[in-house]
Amino acid sequence: MMFFLFLYLLIPVCATFAGFIVWAINRGQSLDDGTLIRDFLIILAISLLLVGGAGTTDTVRLYLDPQFRLQTEMDAHPVYSTIKRVSPDDHTKLDTFLAVQMSHGDTLAEAFLQARPLLTQLTNQRSGWADQKTKLAWGRVSVDSLKELQAIDPMLCYRTLSTQPPSQQELAHAFSADNTTAFQQAVVKVYESSVLGISNKRSPDDEAPVEFNAAAREFYAIREAVAQRYGKPVAELATNKKAFPATPTQPPEKMCAARIFQLEAMLERPQAMAARLIDSLLR
Hints:
By secondary structure, this protein is mainly alpha-helical. The chain is built from 16 helices and no strands. It starts with a helix and ends with a helix.
């Protein structure tokens, strides 16, 4: 639509240019009207073809077509382009969310900040297909993110882990620029790594998978460590509930600290064990 409007607006310019060329070529000559009209139409057609061809180039469309410019910016974002390439279903969810946010006046960068809870949810689900090292990297980003929230507001940290998480607006500016960058890089790695997992191919860096019973023993060993440090009620919530109750039954700062301790204890295990434990807690 923008292209045709652009072409329509340039018809008078092209006509003026064609008229000038006809005058310049035939200056001082006596020609009949038919010849002049023919020359004019030929030059006008050539001008319109040249302008139309230039109007279809990406460089020109970036200036003329806001929708094309926005889509180009989105496709250049590593998170967006990776999810678009790897998971059409997740891409649809992200695309819909970003469109809604930008319809409210947010820039693309602001919309991506608002999309963090959605990206966390999608990546947690996707991480089950990732290789062991990628799962550990995702776990470390999760720990670092909780630590930042804990330092700002323990209740905000707790609500992030609860069944009624904070709004997108509350979380949009809660994280540092470095954390946001690390988060987005981890999202990209999880999606890229998941391609092998979905194809039932193991990464050469993966260790032999851990048996369920062995993982269960380590899980409950960590639970005991949480109980010794933060108390049995906190340990039971941290172990039995992936999402904490909406209303805290224990001090929020203690619950958030316990989840951080729990994740860090899992990350200290050998690679295969740590990946299995992190996956069981986050996914």
